[in-house]
Amino acid sequence: MDRVLGAEVEQFLKQDKELFVGGRFVPAAGGRTFSTLDPSTGAPLAQVAFAGPDDVAAAVAAARAALDGPWGDLPASGRERLLARLADLVERDAAVLAELDAVDGGKPRSLTAAVDVPGAVEHLRYYSGWPTKLEGATLPVGLPGALCYTRLEPVGVCAAIIPWNFPLMMAGWKLAPALAAGCTVVLKPAEQTPLSALWLAGLVAEAGFPPGVVNVLTGDGSTGAALVDHPDVAKVAFTGSTAVGREIAAKAGAAVKRVSLELGGKCPNIVLADADLPAAIAGAAEAAFFNSGQSCVAGARLYVQRAVYDEVLAGLAGAASGIVPAPALDPEGVLGPLVSAEQYARVRGYLVDAVAEGARVVAGQVPPEEPGGGYFVAPVVLADVPATAALAREEVFGPVVAVTPFDTLDEVVDLAEDTPYGLAAGVWTRDLASAHVLAARLKVGMFYVNAWAVGDPAAPWGGVKSSGIGRELGRANLDAYLEPKTVWVVHGTP
Questions:
Q1: Do 44 and 184 fall within a single domain?
Q2: Are residues 259 and 296 in the same domain?
Q3: Marked catalytic residue, from 122, 262, 395, 472
Q4: Which of 158, 296, 395, 472 is catalytic?
Q5: Does the annotation count 247 as an active-site position?
Q6: How many domains does the chain have?
Q7: pLDDT per residue as tens digits for the range 287-317
Q8: Has residue 493 been placed in a domain?
């Protein structure tokens, strides 16, 4: 279908896409720009400013000045009001933001409207309640006549580097806790999906945040690298691939910077023989194919107890065959294209190699070498995938699921744990004893029972092993942006 955009989005796409530094939109110092594309067609959407080292320096300087000036002087109640105001503005512009993320990233507008934008609003509202609740403590120390207490202070200037699969929601995940803690932020959106972050920057200004509190730099990995390297950046918060996360962790370690990493996953989804099979099949399809499989918590490895393996495999194949990819603005669409030609080629490569190694395609097909207009890949269900195949071990980030039978809990634990990742896992069962056993034995940051990828702003999100360091969301995420300072006041001579 033809792309039909709302008037506000059409007008926005025609405007210059500049950087947001020090409370205003400015062109890149070097005048460089890049194109952001519509994954549904492969056609350019807009030209966007490309931030270089000079722009990074200007943004960090603006963030530092705000921290040392009006933002640092603002009482906690002021931060609370501004975050709540920003949440209101995002909610007001929900339709525009949903459309921008859809057309820029390829996700169906129905999903960005139902998931991404409300998710950003919920997180801003949740953290807007925290600034006035952040308390130090008076400590019962052993030194006579001494008062010892702690202050919770902002870490400083934070670099927030976000991925392309949930652009607006990830911006909310990064900005909300940092601002609640009193930090200032330089936000770097993914080069594939910069548009909603730039609209959000305008809302930051409208909400009344002091200049420099939030800055938005668009560009590619070199922009993010310059931001990570800047000596005045005190903390890096990154969501993205494990490979890039390792590079950031190495740099942050060398510079002794705070870092939090929400990285990749190869998540095992387990179906026991006693499960509610229709619910398990529907849940497995949602886990594997939501957002075209472009999710760190995609249930890309499905382990099914042998007694119900054939039934679940057939049911999942039927569900997959009923999902037809469509352009992001198709009102009936539930599965959009992959985000880019590079991602299309990557997913196709995994499928080609797996089939060559003996995997059996049960539903869907290996997509053609050339994608044509948009980067569409229909859901693919595979069986008999060799354990040594790259598709079985690496994060594909596409609508692909490998289904494997097992007999015992011990066996499925061994299968599920045969991975360097540890983000999420889940089980479908009526036996809560088995569910608790698996929850305890699988080394993951999140575990789901008869559900998949449920979440809430109050519930910590993140993984272990190669899936990351630290947690997003909840009170736990605030700690990543706060430094406890111990103060001793000694009266008289000990």
A1: yes
A2: no
A3: 262
A4: 296
A5: no
A6: 2
A7: 999 999 999 999 999 999 999 999 999 999 9
A8: no
